[in-house]
Specification:
The complex is a heterodimer. Chain A contains 9 helices and no strands. Chain A is mostly helical. Chain B contains 13 helices and 2 strands, in the order H-H-H-H-E-E-H-H-H-H-H-H-H-H-H. Classes of the chains: A mainly alpha, B mainly alpha.
Chain lengths: 293, 303
């Protein structure tokens, strides 16, 4: 494992890689802003004031107002909460559904894994956005369905990762000895395999987190996201896009926030992959995978 | 013989996949209450009696298995049904929308693959040139920038600030935006592979002989790069479908993406079923083709 890694991201010495530091800083900044921001901002993200619509950034409204006179900064902060929720929630749902189903199937053994992964193969062929659209079409709009749809669309990747690590661990010597000693699959799974695949799964979650965020923003942008009033970044972008001529700041603020946040999260996720992922040798030549749709 | 078996397996799997997706789409759409008649009721103040009558007309009052059988029967007869919202045969709508989607999808694919091959070859031959920088720039570009964000900024800059082109119906901007995205996903892997190719014996010999760079590229590197890029393109498919869909909506292009979205917004079952099935079919076929290409280029994994 000491060999030189050929990963997509250039390996600069230690943690001091400036891109990683800046990314971490920005993510922390957004998290703090989402938590503390609402206490500091005087404006209500939902308060409309048609007298001050499309106001340019200034002393009163730091980032200006949108087409309904709502404060862009306040909406940006409210949107940050929602965006982080979608990222974390989506990754969590993908994790529970993907790794949960995948590992249970493998633990049961027999023909079950073949059937389950056959189904996973089926779903995986469809483009993620189509799966999300189909799920939203059937579940209806709203925060819950969107979260669920985004999470489920990424579940197959967790299933694959858990299977890959499972197969590798099952061939290892310590599992072979545990089996020789007569321990059951469940015991081996919980005592030996689970701790060993945690790293790979955490990495996968970190990689999927920004993808969930972008998918949600695309869905919101298409008008299928949470409720029309909810200040999500995708919805802010799509609402303000129609009036980009008069109020470009109202489009650019959420757009830049979205781009920088997802980029930062991708960079951190990739960093984590290089650090933690025991599968990295297998995918050493795989370049930094794409985050976006 | 082995290849024939592999081909048959692929075809069988693909067929099974399309059938499974059809079933999935049909029943998923009907899990949640609220059909097209409800949408009309809200929009047009239908009375309960009118709504019931409309449901009867559309066959939505029949039990699900019967509806499913009717749909499959129609499909087998080559009928996609009638869109409730557009009041037109779904087949006609799709035929009308396909050219737009094909132009955008194919155009951006060709642009993206060409760009990726050009940059990868340039960077492999001249590692210190601007090509090498561009490989990284395009790669990071596609990681950092969702296509709809790029498209929007493009609209703001080129259409609104500079006034160069109209926003709606513009086809060049979407092609460039999706193409850049595709190039970014391919270029890094392609570059890695070509770096090995340039250090291989035949390329070194050719360079030592003083073969002209253009000759070197056309006869020695392109034959390696082009099929490789096509085989790799399986990984960009899902991005291509998603990107085309979003760009169509953003630029107001009358393609399959816009049609699907309108169908979903209006809960127009026949339309959504047809477009989703069509998109799934396209993805499955293209995936099968790239897999096949992969085995033709590098038969090792299949054996």
């Amino acid at each position: 494992m000491l060999s030189v890694q050929k990963t997509g991201a250039p390996r600069m010495g230690g943690v001091r890689n400036p891109v990683v530091v800046l990314s971490a800083g920005f993510v922390i900044f957004i998290v703090v802003a989402a938590l503390v921001g609402p206490l500091l901002i005087a404006h209500d993200p939902l308060h409309q004031n048609l007298m001050t619509r499309n106001a340019a950034p200034g002393a009163d409204f730091w980032l200006g107002t949108d087409n309904l006179g709502r404060d862009v900064l306040a909406r940006l902060i409210a949107g940050a909460q929602f965006t982080l929720l979608v990222g974390l929630g989506g990754a969590l749902i993908a994790f529970v559904a993907g790794a949960g189903i995948g590992l249970s199937a493998l633990a049961i053994g027999g023909p079950v894994p073949h059937v389950v992964f056959g189904v996973v193969d089926l779903v995986r062929v469809l483009p993620g956005l189509l799966i999300v659209l189909l799920l939203i079409a059937s579940l209806g709009p709203g925060t819950g369905p969107v979260l669920f749809a985004v999470g489920l669309s990424f579940a197959p990747q967790f299933a694959y990762v858990s299977r890959a690590v499972w197969v590798r661990e099952m061939q290892s010597d310590y599992v072979a000895s545990a089996r020789t000693l007569g321990y059951g699959r469940i015991y081996i799974l919980s005592r030996h395999i689970a701790p060993n695949i945690a790293g790979a799964l955490v990495t996968q979650a970190a990689i999927i987190l920004p993808r969930c965020i972008v998918t949600e923003s695309v869905v919101s942008f298409l008008g299928l996201g949470a409720s029309p009033d909810a200040p999500t970044w995708g919805r802010m972008i799509s609402d303000a896009a129609r009036l980009a001529e008069r109020a470009p700041h109202a489009v650019l603020a959420p757009l830049i926030a979205l781009v920088v946040l997802t980029f930062s999260l991708s960079m951190l996720g990739d960093r984590l992959r290089v650090r933690l992922d025991p599968l990295r040798r297998a995918s050493a030549t795989t370049p930094l995978r794409k985050t976006m749709i | 013989m082995k290849q024939m078996v592999a081909l048959a397996t692929t075809l069988g799997r693909s067929a099974l996949l399309v059938v499974a997706i059809g079933i999935l789409v049909f029943f998923f759409l009907r899990i949640v209450p609220g059909d097209v008649v409800d949408v009309f009721s809200v929009e047009g103040d239908l009375t309960a009696a009118q709504a019931d009558m409309m449901r009867k007309e559309l066959g939505l009052d029949a039990p699900l298995p019967a509806q499913f059988a009717a749909w499959v029967g129609d499909l087998l007869a080559g009928e996609f049904g009638t869109s409730v919202r557009y009041q037109r045969p779904v087949g006609d709508l799709i035929v009308g929308a396909i050219p737009t989607t094909l132009v955008v999808g194919l155009g951006s694919f060709v642009f993206g693959v060409t760009l990726a091959i050009t940059l990868a070859i340039g960077a492999a031959l001249w590692p210190k040139s601007v090509f090498a920088v561009m490989v990284n720039v395009v790669n990071v570009w596609s990681i950092a920038l969702p296509t709809f964000c790029v498209g929007l900024v493009g609209i703001i800059v080129f259409s609104i600030w500079l006034g160069w082109m109209p926003v709606l119906g513009n086809i060049w901007l979407p092609i460039i935006v999706i193409g850049m995205d595709i190039a970014g996903q391919l270029v890094k892997t392609l570059h890695e592979e070509l770096k090995e190719a340039t250090s291989s014996a035949h390329v070194r010999t050719a360079r030592a002989k003083g073969v002209h760079p253009i000759r070197l590229i056309v006869f020695h590197l392109l034959p390696t790069a082009a099929p490789l890029a096509l085989a790799l393109s399986g990984i960009v498919l899902s991005g291509l479908v998603g990107g085309t869909l979003t760009m169509e909506v953003l630029f107001g292009l009358p393609g399959i993406g816009s049609l699907t979205l309108n169908g979903i917004l209006g809960r127009d079952y026949p339309l959504i079923q047809a477009t989703l099935l069509l998109l799934a079919l396209a993805v499955v076929v293209l995936n099968g083709l790239t897999d096949l290409l992969h085995t033709l280029i590098d038969p090792r994994p299949a054996q």
